[in-house]
Amino acid sequence: MKLGIISDTHGMPQAWEKAINWFADADLILHAGDVLYHPPRIGSTPGYDLIGLAELMNTSSIPIIIARGNCDPEVYEEILTMPVLSPYAHVEVNGLRIIINHGHTLDGKRLSQTAEKYRADIFITGHTHIPLIEHCGKCIHINPGSPSHPKFEQDGAPVPTAGIITDNRVQIINIQTGEEILGISLA
């Protein structure tokens, strides 16, 4: 099993393409929202191409599950061939219960309560653009960061990130180099 984990692509096809290189043999891609929209606070970003990213996602040979983010309007249903679920997506893969939510309305307590209520093994959020892997009770909380507008830095430079879940490991990687930034064993 291999799952690609991504969030906060914000209409940047180049970021998607870099991440998808690491997801090439994935069984499924889980997206925690803010797919296409380019919020005004980000400003004019070179490479922004909402239609280009939609086309790449629509032609993906890997199925994509999306939880709606705070910047994802319903109109996306008209240009994406997969639903942008709202506000939670739930999948079960190889016995792992996975909940996906953008995270913009969840504090730590509510995330923990939701994970416990639904007996989630893994809870994926986005929104912050900062990668995170931590235990949340019996659950592992993952935020893959952002491949397009990262707020995580190494040596003073922003690092675009995405996540990967395999049978025995959860990791956040630098999508430019494949280097593991954060990781935890599932065993």
Any overview of this molecule?
This protein is α/β, with parallel strands linked by helices. The chain has one domain (2-185): Purple Acid Phosphatase, chain A, domain 2. The chain is built from 3 helices and 14 strands. The chain has a 7-stranded mixed beta sheet, covered by helices on one side. A 5-stranded mixed beta sheet has the order 5-6-7-9-8. The chain has a two-stranded antiparallel sheet with strand order 10-11. The longest helix is centred in the N-terminal third of the chain and has 10 residues, at 13-22. The chain is globular.
Secondary structure layout plus pairing:
Layout: E1 2-6, H1 13-22, E2 28-31, H2 50-58, E3 64-67, E4 84-85, E5 88-93, E6 96-101, H3 108-117, E7 122-124, E8 131-136, E9 139-144, E10 153-154, E11 157-158, E12 161-166, E13 169-174, E14 180-185
Helix pairs in contact: 1-2
